[in-house]
Specification:
mainly alpha, single chain, 160 residues
Length: 160
């Protein structure tokens, strides 16, 4: 199918696009822009071409009324008391809960203090690791001044 083809759109979608296009043109938009905006609006509202095919959106559209009918039927089975109880529960969950005061003042203060502690720990750890790398670089040289290789380690050359 060619790009821009309207073959997969239903008659209703085409009428919808035509009406929207006329509205844009009445406001002074060019014909080309009005058409593009109209089809973009139709796509946004309906999700694209609704005519059948193997992966058709039309199947889902046909099924929607059945789903709605099933939901309405289930709602009719509930008693008025059940409906009002669920409404009360929903209303209660929408109300704001009062903020409890913490021992150290406010929660934000406690968070700030904890953040500072974590930063302090990070900086002290990073300085330790820097010192450790400095020591490692001197380990290759033995105490007698010879360059350290794996074989020459102390007098006997053996490792403990």
């Amino acid at each position: 199918m060619a790009r821009g083809s309207k073959a997969k759109y239903t008659a209703k979608q085409k009428r919808m696009a035509e009406k929207i296009e006329k509205g844009y043109e009445a406001r002074g938009t060019s014909d080309k822009t009005a058409a593009a905006r109209a089809w973009a609006t139709v796509n946004k509202a309906t999700g694209g071409g609704m005519k059948g095919g193997s992966g058709s959106k039309a199947k889902m559209a046909r099924r929607r009324p059945k789903v709605r009918a099933a939901a309405k039927k289930a709602a009719r089975k509930r008693t008025a008391a059940q409906r009002s109880a669920s409404a009360r529960k929903a209303a209660a969950s929408r109300t704001r809960k009062p903020v409890r005061a913490t021992r150290s003042g406010s929660k934000s203060t406690a968070r700030r203090v904890a953040g500072r502690r974590a930063t302090a720990r990070k900086t002290s750890t990073s300085t330790r690791s820097k010192r450790g790398t400095a020591r490692k670089s001197t380990r290759g040289i033995s105490r007698r001044g010879t360059t350290g290789t794996r074989g020459s380690r102390g007098r006997g050359g053996s490792r403990r």
